[in-house]
Structure formats: C-alpha cells, structure tokens
Amino acid sequence: MASALRLLPSTAARLRFSRSLPFSAAASLFSPPSKAVLYDQHGPPDQVLRVADVPPVELGERDVCVRMLAAPINPSDINRVQGVYPVRPPLPAAVAGYEGVAQVHAVGPAVTRPISPGDWVIPSPPSFGTWQTYIVKPEDVWHKVRDDVPVEYAATVTVNPLTALRMLRDFVDLNPGDAIVQNGATSIVGQCVIQLAKVQGIRTINIIRDRPGSEEAKEKLKQLGADEVFTESQLDVKNVKSLLGALPEPALGFNCVGGNAASLILKLLRQGGTMVTYGGMSKKPVTVSTSSFIFKDLSLRGFWLQKWMNSDKAEDCRIMIDYLLALVQEGKLKYEMELTPFSEFGLALDKSLGKHGSQPKQVLSF
Amino acid sequence: MASALRLLPSTAARLRFSRSLPFSAAASLFSPPSKAVLYDQHGPPDQVLRVADVPPVELGERDVCVRMLAAPINPSDINRVQGVYPVRPPLPAAVAGYEGVAQVHAVGPAVTRPISPGDWVIPSPPSFGTWQTYIVKPEDVWHKVRDDVPVEYAATVTVNPLTALRMLRDFVDLNPGDAIVQNGATSIVGQCVIQLAKVQGIRTINIIRDRPGSEEAKEKLKQLGADEVFTESQLDVKNVKSLLGALPEPALGFNCVGGNAASLILKLLRQGGTMVTYGGMSKKPVTVSTSSFIFKDLSLRGFWLQKWMNSDKAEDCRIMIDYLLALVQEGKLKYEMELTPFSEFGLALDKSLGKHGSQPKQVLSF
C-alpha cells in the first residue's frame, strides 16, 4: 500500500489513467475538474472576480490532490484582489483565497508523509488559491489536522487565531497575572486574544467603538473572558489608569484601529510598554507624542503574519495550529462565523464587502 | 600623605579648621563660601532663577570639595527649572545645572580614590547643582578626567556626546559601511552623531530645516564628515531613496524634531529599520502609517540619557567619557560653544532662551 496510489473509494472511478501502463505512469493521474474564483487584474473584488471552470491538473508523484471543504473570506484576501497588499499572486488567472481546510482526495505514488485519502489537511504555511474546489500541491504543503472540530474553525485557524497567539508570545514576556490592552476587541483576532490570554492567566483590557449595541458587545466579550471592556469615550478621561482598578498596568498593547483608539492604548500602557500594530481599521495613522518615547520609554512595533510565516516557521506554525484546534475542541476558543455555500460566492463576497451591514465572517463551504 | 587633608596650596590658608584638634576633627573642614543659581519654584527661568550666596558646607571624611570650572546651559536644565522635566531636584532652594567640569579644591582625610587637589573631575553620572562655584559631594560622585582639552568640552561631554554615542550603540548592530539617518543634524547631538559614526566607518544621511543659510549649514556638516545633507523640502519627493545614490538604505534613524522631519526618517529607513526619538524640537508629534508598522516592519523607540544613567551604568559612563574626551583631544569631535563668565549669568541665560537670536551653546565659565 505504501507506494500505491491511494484514492477516496468514491472518487477512484472518476480518475482516468491507463491500467495497462507500468506503475510509473501513475504520473498521468489528474485531479477532477475544478471550479475556482479567479481574477486577471486588480480592482474592486465584486468587479474583477469571476467563478470559472478549471481543467484537471496532473499530479506529480509526490503531489496530493485535495477537495476543499471550507475557506474564509479574510480582509487580506480582499486587499490582495484590490492590489493593495504587498504580497500577491501573479496575474492573470490568479486564484483568490489564502487559507482553508480540505479533505485529501488522492495522493501520488511516492508520497511519504502519513497523509491518506479522507484526512483533513490545511495548507501550512497558507498559500494562494484556496477558493477552488480541487487543489493539487506537493505533499509538503499539507498539514494533517484533527477532523473533530467544526469545519469553519479548521478553515480559519491559520490567519486570525495564529496572529493572536504570536502577538502574545513574540514581543513581551508575559506571566500569569500580567495585563495586556487591545483595541478592536470585537474583531476575531481580538476575541482570540481575550481567550488565548485567559488560557495563560493573562488579564485583558479591551477597547471597543462607541456605537449602538456597545453594551451588548461588552457583555459578549466578558463572556469570552475579558476582564475589562471600555468604549473609547469611557477612556476619554484625564486619569485613565484610575479605571484599571486592581488590574496591573499593561506592558503590551495590540492596535488594529489607529487614530484615537491607538492613542488610548499608549495612554494605558505602563512605563517601558510595547504597542504592536497589526491593522488600521480606522484608516487613521498612529500619532505619538515625543514624551511617550523619551520619558515613558514606549516601543512601537508591527506584526504581519505573512512575514512571520516567510521566515522558515513551517514547523512552529503546524504546532500552533494543532494547539489552537485543541482549544477549539475543548470549547476554549470560539468566534462567530457564517458558512455560505460556494455556489453562492457572490452573496458571501457582498456580505464580506459590507453591502449587507455588519455580518459575521463569511466562510465558503464547498 | 594618603590620609592627610590635601588642599590646593593657594586655598589652604582660606580654610578654617583648628590645628589643635586631633586629626579626626578634620571633619570640621568647610568649603569656601559659594555663589549658586537657585530657584524656589518652577516657572520661566528668567523670572524664578536667582544668583545667591551659599554658606560654606562641611566636608565629610570621604567628601571632595571642587571648584567649578565650566558648566553648560542645556535645554534640559531650562526644562527642569520650568517644571516640565520628569526628574527634578526638590524645591525650594534647588541649585540649577546638571553637568560640568570642576577642579578639585580639597579632599577629606578618608578619601581613597586617586583624586588630588588640582585634578579635573566631572560628576558622573551627572547630578543636580552644577551652577555654583564650589560643590561638596562624596568622592564616588567624581570622575577624574584629562585636563588637556578645552574646558568647555569637558564641561559638556556627558549629556550631548554621550547621548549620540549610546544611540549609535544601543539599538541596531551597525557595521562599517552601514548608513544611518537623522534629523536636527545641526544640533550638538546631531554633530556628534556625524563625527562618532565617521570614527566607526558608518555613513550618515542628515536632514536639516529649510531656512536662510541652509547651504552654509550643509557645508559645515560635510566638513564634520556628513555623507549626505538634505533640507526637508529636498526630501519631499516620491522616490526618496533615489536620492541616496550609492549609500545603503539606513537601518537606524534618530529623531529630535517630530512632525514632518520624523516622517522623512520613516520614509528613508529600510525594511525592518528602527527610529529612535530623543527630542521634539518642532513640538509636533510623530505620525506613523499603519503600513509602516505592518508591511515595512519599522520599530519606534525612545532614548533618554537620564534613564540610561539611572540603570546602574556609572562605570560604563566613565569609560565613554574618557573615550569621548580622547576624541576631542585628537580633533575628531568638535562643536561650537561660547564661554560666558558666571558673573554674566543673566546674559548667558537670555542667549540660551533665544532672546538674542540663534546663538551657540552657552557654557558658564567660573
């Protein structure tokens, strides 16, 4: 069996290859025809994206063919299509999407890793082209994951939860009892930060926007384990630290908003603290007083998961994915998503673009 | 001689102590009467500072009495008097001034360090109260320095040149051939950065204000060893890096201005670079785009010499002072200053406050 072509029984009949050829001719194994979301030029996603049939792809001896199960629409996917993301797939006929979970459909005869048809796998590090029904890539691309979690969590574990986990680990040595502060706390990264911090015994101070429903949003975050949640206007006081009560002054802050919401983090941080910027939802820059640098000794840094991934961290990445999916399985990591069938891609995209008001994260279900 | 009271011959007669007492009674040795610049409350320096007679101070057995030779008026001295500096001497009757050079006048009988009357010494780390004619402090305060450099250099070596040296060492590992960028390049710290970098084979890209005489200022900085000098408006181009010619993109930048001049440093820095803020001459904050943090991976830090001094760096500080004064002696470190007699303190202060237009750094000569 080790060197045999392994196929899911139900699909074996659909693959064409000549039984009369010697075994090396197994290289003529092909994927099923696939449907993909493509773009030929950068621009508004609802104008430049198209769903197209993609012809079967030949499997190399160490290739694995997977059938996608689920893939999210992340803001960075939108930015790549728009052409405003620094790393983008080459045009034309770029397949969109960057993360997701798949089921192994067939493996080439020389595949050596313990990956079998039926297994759930994740492209790890993530890579371009997850918005399509079948994908063929070398075995090294795929990381086998547990299949006892909801498919939408396996599909989204690599970008948002892993960002939260890395930011908690890479900048400041935190000990149980320490506190951190973040804005954009209702984002999925924000929710992951709260829950992952809680697992480590780290307290979280959370900043959210002033808007209708902010009391309900506060309650939701507290149910996830948030220690304190403030709206921006609540922090608009002179002695902001008096609001912290028994919580220690935070040594680390996460900013995904910019503008005033970033300044509030700088105000709350303790002497010598660090603020990490990983997003700019307000589209406003970060503004910092000279004394914050000189007398308060604050450090300002940035985090970009894609750069971290590029620095030869494949094995670390896989260990973290397993850790995060274990937390999901234990009920310690959750966030709201909506599964939308791939056949309704246009609807899922419109929801992601905000055309239907505030919506949960869209995850394409194949 | 080791345990004898040592005095400068010319002043021995002026000190009163009873020759009939046993030697331990040398503790009743007093400094000469002194004149000091004092303040009793914070406020505008030209209103709250006063020159006053200070009574003789008793020397302890391990005290050293010095006669000040020269002490600069630094911007931080002004800020301490104004009350806007985070660390200030207690009021009332605080003696102003923070650095300077002195000549040893007398040493207590139990002084063990090789400090003798006539030696030049520097309070190192610097400490409050250098704007007075005689000072008594424990022997550990004083660092003996060479006396073959101009007195104004010994008086000013600790704050500005040491800031430049530390900033070159503490943030980024630089190798010969690397480049750095700074704004406020005509400041004394800026001039020191240029010269200290040159000693290490590091190239400097310097930013100065647009103003009448900027061509002359450029020429002066180039004579000190600056590789490139630009006015802010010259850098107001889209492809700023095309101006660097053969210079490598800088990994480190120093900001003492803020506002647009800080943004220009961020533009010039290479991917993953660090900007260190140590001043805010424009009184404008530092503004940073989200993408500078995420995609360009810039780090923003601060430097404050007084905090560095507090972290138990006395020995390091003294080694650096010796190194810097050796460079002065070799003609490799220079900057413009004006010696003004202590008797004309009011004039020196007015010049430092900008009342007489742009003036060189004022150094009080005692």
Automatic annotation (TrEMBL), chains A, B:
The keyword Ribonucleoprotein does not apply. Homodimer. InterPro entries: ADH-like_C (IPR013149), ADH-like_N (IPR013154), ER (IPR020843), GroES-like_sf (IPR011032), Mito_Enoyl-ACP_Reductase (IPR051034), NAD(P)-bd_dom_sf (IPR036291). It comes from the Eukaryota. The keyword Plastid does not apply. The lineage of its organism: Eukaryota, Viridiplantae, Streptophyta, Embryophyta, Tracheophyta. It catalyses: a 2,3-saturated acyl-[ACP] + NADP(+) = a (2E)-enoyl-[ACP] + NADPH + H(+). This is Enoyl-[acyl-carrier-protein] reductase, mitochondrial. It comes from Lolium multiflorum. It holds the Pfam family ADH_N. CDD domains: ETR. Belongs to the zinc-containing alcohol dehydrogenase family. Quinone oxidoreductase subfamily. One of its GO terms (biological process) is fatty acid biosynthetic process. GO terms for cellular component: mitochondrion. Its EC number is 1.3.1.104. GO terms for molecular function: enoyl-[acyl-carrier-protein] reductase (NADPH) activity. It is found in: Mitochondrion. Residues 43-364 form the Enoyl reductase (ER) domain. It is an enzyme of class 1 (oxidoreductase). Keywords: Fatty acid biosynthesis, Fatty acid metabolism, Lipid biosynthesis, Lipid metabolism, Mitochondrion, NADP, Oxidoreductase, Transit peptide.
